[in-house]
Each structure stands twice: as C-alpha cells, then as structure tokens.
Amino acid sequence: MRRIETLALLALLPVCARAQGGVQNMDLYLGFGGTPIHAQPVAGTSTTLSSSVAADASFAYDYQISHWSNASLWIEFPISYQASHQRSSALPGNVELDSTFLTPGVRFVVPVQTRVSVYGAAGGGGGFYQVPVLTGTGLLASTNPAHGVVDFAGGVDFRVNRTFSLRVQVRDFVSGHHLSGVAGVNHIVPTVGLAYHF
Predict the structure, then answer these.
(1) pLDDT exceeding 70 applies to what percent of the chain?
(2) What CATH topology corresponds to 2-197?
(3) Contacts of 106 (CB under 8 A, 6+ apart)
C-alpha cells in the first residue's frame, strides 16, 4: 500500500511544482478508512475464517475537462487498496486477503454551497485480489487472481481554503464473487482524507 501511494505521489510532484496559482483544474486526494469483513468459509473445505476489519486507502489524481456555472466534469485516476488479515481457529497462521483497484473514470461535481460540493463518479479497470486456499500441507495460503472491475463512487468535498479540502467518499468496486474476503460482488471502500487543489 505505501509503495503504491508513494510512487504515485512522486510521479505527480513535478505537476504540482508547475502549478503556481490561477485557474485550479487539478487535484490530488489521499484518504483512509475501514470496512468490516465478515466470517467466511474457505472454498472446498469446512474451515471458516474469522471476521475482521479491513484497512482502506484511496489515492486519486483528478483533472477538470469542462466547467459550467453550476457543475464541472473531471477525469480521475484512482488507486484504492484494501488490506485484511483473517485466521481460522482450526488452523495455524493468518492469511492476507488484500485488494488493489485501478479504475480510471469520470467525476461529476456539483457545488451546493460556497465551500461544499457533492460528486458522483464512475469508471472501470482491474482488481487484483487474494483468495484463501488450503495447501496440501494443511496450512492456510492465498492465490492472487485478477478480475475486471466497474467502479461507482460518491462523496462530499468541504473546502477549507483555496488549496485544501476535507473529502468524504465511498467507492463500490463491482467485481467477481468470493474475492479477498467478500462473499458478494460489491467491494465497498469508504475513506476520509484531504484533497489538494492546484
């Protein structure tokens, strides 16, 4: 998680350095949160993994492509990460069930007050998961499948000043069944963080 976000931030530092004021048509967002992960069986066995809480992180670079008096349209390049560790009472050790989502898309922003905006977003791309399995030696392990993803998001932006805002958002990554500790197809990633506008 730290490696992905650090590389993304370093790659965008030159862009930030060139922004010296004037029209603000780009922003960076970094947020964190948590999601409950329910107990689940390991496929093909009678073993059940305990419930846990996944740590969530989301980073995004957004670029405004159109602006009207009461709305704006942005393209976005989000990277989201969800880390979960689960264990079984019947077997030794823990198993990591992490997910990484890369889903470029568009974001539609509507200001509702001077310092408050709401937005909706949609995109698509790939998800990289971990799925629990039982090895031949009776130990828990995980495989690493990839799967296509459709991303829907919504959020609220509270502008603190010209440069920063507090952002609350929820992303729903719709993908395959039984991936990274999620029984259904909806991988929910709620985060709260700061957006840097330039």
Answers:
(1) 82
(2) Porin (2.40.160)
(3) 73, 74, 75, 76, 121, 122, 123
